[in-house]
Write a structure and sequence with these properties.
Structural class: alpha+beta
Radius of gyration: 25 Å
Distance between the termini: 12 Å
Strand order of the largest sheet: 2-6-7-1-5-4-3
Largest sheet: 7 strands, antiparallel
Helix content: 25-40%
Length: 407
C-alpha cells in the first residue's frame, strides 16, 4: 500500500521566492493545457496528445520570449503539472460515463495565483534528496529545513511540496509500506466492536465506552468570529486585509489540525485493539443540510470513517458498514423487539417487550455490532480482512491539505 508521510518545511526567504516561482510556472503550464483542450473542443478538433502538449507548452515555450522564464524551474515540476491536467480530464470523462465512483465532477478549471493552496511535485528523476543533516534538497530551490516528526520507513518515490492557506509549507512523501512490518506492528486479536457515532458523544462503543466529542470548532468559535470580523473591516486589496486573511486561515488550520489529530489517535487505537469494527454508513452530506449542520461538520465523521477504512486495509482488520436505514436506535439489543422511532432528546428508553432499560447510544452500538455479523464471531471464527485502499493524513505530523496517510 502506498501512504503519504507529511512533514513541516521551513524555507528561508530566498527559498520561499524560488518556491513561489515554481508554483507559478506549474500553474501556467496547467492553465495552458486546459486552454489547449478547450480551444480544441470549441474548434471540434481531436484533443491534443500528452506528448504534443509537452513539446508545445514546455519545450517550445521555453524558447519564446513570453515563456522563457519556464526554464528557471525544474522541468520535472512542469511535466508533473501537465500530467495533473491530463488526470483531471481523465477523471472528468470517467465521471461523465459513470465509471468513476462518487459524485459528479466538473471539467478542470483554470488555476489562480490567489488560490489558497499551491503545490508542486518532484519525482525520482528530479534528483531531489535528503541531505546528511536532514534537509530536503530540491533542484533549483535549495536545501530546505524539515521538522522530522519520525523517520521514513523506506525510500520515498516522490515528494510534493505544498503551501496551504495559512502560509505554511509541507513536504508530502509517497512511501510503499512493508506488509510484514505492518503485521508485526499490530498482531491479530479476538476483539470485535460496534461504534455508534453521535454528537452528544463522538462515539459510543458496544463495550459501553463513551468517547466525548471535543467540539474543536465550537470551542474556537469566538476566536474565529473575531478574526472574521476583523477581516471584513479591512479594505479589499490592502496589505492589512492580507494580514487579517492569514490570521483567520491560521485559526481555521489550528482547528482542523486538532480535529485530524484526534481522529488519528482514536482510529489507530480502535484498529489496534479490535480485529473487527462495525460502523453505520451515515449520510453525512444529508445531515449537513439540517439544523445540526455545524455540529456535524465539527465532528468530521466522514474523515474518521475513511481513516478506519485505510488502516483496516493496511493492518488486516475488518471494517463493516451497515445500512443507514437499519433501525439500530429502535431495536432492543436484548430481545430484538423493534420499539419504534424516538426523538433525539430521548437518551434512555425501556423495551415494551422485555422491560430492559437501554442507554440509547450503547444499545445502538450493540445493534450495529450484531447487524454487521461481528457478534457471532466470538467463538473464534476468523474475520476476513477487507481490501479498502484509502489515503489520508499522517498521525503525529502537521496537517497537510493534500490527501496523505499513514497510521
Amino acid at each position: 500500500m502506498q501512504l503519504r508521510y507529511g512533514f513541516r518545511l521551513y524555507p528561508d526567504t530566498g527559498q520561499q521566492a524560488a518556491l513561489a516561482k515554481a508554483f507559478g510556472c506549474a500553474r501556467v503550464v496547467f492553465n495552458d493545457a486546459v486552454r489547449a483542450r478547450e480551444d480544441a473542443r470549441k474548434a471540434q478538433l481531436p484533443f491534443p496528445k500528452a506528448g504534443e502538449l509537452s513539446t508545445r507548452l514546455i519545450t517550445d515555450a521555453k524558447r519564446t520570449p513570453q515563456r522563457s522564464w519556464l526554464s528557471e524551474v525544474s522541468a520535472v515540476v512542469l511535466q508533473q503539472s501537465l500530467r495533473d491536467a491530463e488526470t483531471a480530464y481523465r477523471n472528468f470523462f470517467a465521471s461523465l460515463k459513470g465509471t468513476r465512483k462518487g459524485p459528479r465532477i466538473r471539467a478542470p478549471r483554470f488555476k489562480s495565483r490567489k488560490d489558497n493552496r499551491q503545490s508542486i511535485r518532484f519525482t525520482a528523476n528530479a534528483r531531489w534528496s535528503i541531505t546528511d543533516i536532514g534537509r530536503l534538497s530540491l533542484p533549483k530551490i535549495g536545501a530546505v529545513k524539515v521538522k522530522w516528526s519520525r523517520t521514513l520507513p523506506a525510500r520515498p518515490s516522490s515528494v510534493t511540496v505544498i503551501k496551504d492557506a495559512a502560509g505554511r509549507y509541507f513536504a508530502s512523501f509517497v512511501i510503499d509500506t512493508d506488509p510484514a512490518a505492518d503485521a508485526a506492528r499490530m498482531p491479530e486479536t479476538d476483539q470485535r466492536v460496534g461504534i455508534d457515532l453521535g454528537l452528544t458523544h463522538f462515539a459510543v462503543l458496544s463495550d459501553g465506552t463513551k468517547i466525548d466529542s471535543p467540539r474543536f470548532l465550537r470551542r474556537a468559535e469566538k476566536k474565529l468570529k473575531k478574526a472574521q470580523h476583523e477581516l471584513s473591516r479591512k479594505q479589499k486589496g490592502s496589505r492589512n486585509r492580507a494580514k487579517a486573511r492569514l490570521k483567520l486561515a491560521r485559526a481555521h488550520a489550528k482547528v482542523a489540525d486538532a480535529r485530524r489529530e484526534f481522529h488519528h489517535q482514536l482510529s489507530t487505537k480502535l484498529i489496534s485493539d479490535n480485529q473487527g469494527i462495525a460502523v453505520e454508513d451515515l449520510s453525512v452530506a444529508g445531515l449537513a443540510r439540517t439544523r445540526l449542520a455545524k455540529s456535524v461538520h465539527d465532528a468530521g465523521w466522514a474523515s474518521f470513517i475513511s481513516m478506519l477504512e485505510y488502516k483496516a486495509a493496511r493492518y488486516g482488520r475488518t471494517l463493516v458498514k451497515i445500512g443507514r436505514f437499519e433501525p439500530t436506535s429502535q431495536t432492543c439489543s436484548t430481545c430484538g423487539n423493534v420499539d419504534g422511532p424516538k426523538p433525539l432528546n430521548v437518551r434512555e428508553w425501556t423495551c415494551t417487550a422485555c422491560g430492559t432499560l437501554h442507554d440509547r447510544d450503547h444499545n445502538a452500538a450493540l445493534n450495529i455490532k450484531t447487524a454487521a455479523g461481528l457478534a457471532a464471531t466470538a467463538c473464534g471464527a476468523p474475520v476476513r480482512p477487507g481490501h479498502v485502499p484509502a489515503q489520508r493524513e499522517e498521525t503525529g505530523s502537521h496537517g497537510i491539505s493534500a490527501g496523505s496517510c499513514t497510521a
